[in-house]
Design a protein that fits this description.
Blueprint lengths: L3 H14 L23 H8 L7 E4 L11 E4 L1 H6 L14 E3 L5 E7 L2 E8 L2 H16 L5
């Protein structure tokens, strides 16, 4: 068994390139690929550096490819909130949910905790609250 960075590199490439990999249907089959630069382990290691203990490879945009610009080391809590929008999501925005009584609830996860951002009568206000929180917590707006 190799180092954690080497294992992350191998796993990433397997998910995207090997149809026999159990996770291929979530990655390679959806067109998610690995940048050509990262076919070389040394380039991947140089771009990413060693992960902290408990961190694993995460794509900032979960719909994007694996590349230097779209990847980071993240803890499990950050990764769990950085997922594709579920098909049942009526708002079209991660972290904005239709709540009881027809109000919209905005929330965001950061460092293992879910932060309640408020209840809103209109969806636009809830989305704005979520976007503001994304800038505050993540430093970018997740589209």
């Amino acid at each position: 068994m190799g180092s954690s960075i080497y294992n992350a590199w191998v796993s990433m490439r397997q998910r995207c390139n090997n149809p026999k990999n159990p996770e291929y249907f979530r990655y390679g089959a959806l067109g998610i690929s690995v940048s050509d630069d990262w076919n070389c382990f040394e380039t991947f290691k140089e771009d990413m550096g060693e992960p902290e203990i408990g961190y694993s490879l995460d794509r900032i945009d979960p719909r994007g490819n694996y590349s230097k610009e779209n990847c980071r080391w993240a803890d499990n809590a950050t990764q769990s909130f950085n997922t594709k929008i579920k098909i049942t999501n009526k708002s079209g925005k991660s972290g904005v949910k239709l709540y009881k009584g027809g109000r919209w609830r905005a929330f965001i996860g950061f460092k293992g905790k879910q932060h309640h951002l408020g209840y809103f009568d209109c969806i636009e206000e809830a989305i704005d609250a979520r976007k503001s929180a994304e800038l505050k917590f993540y430093g970018f707006i997740k589209e």
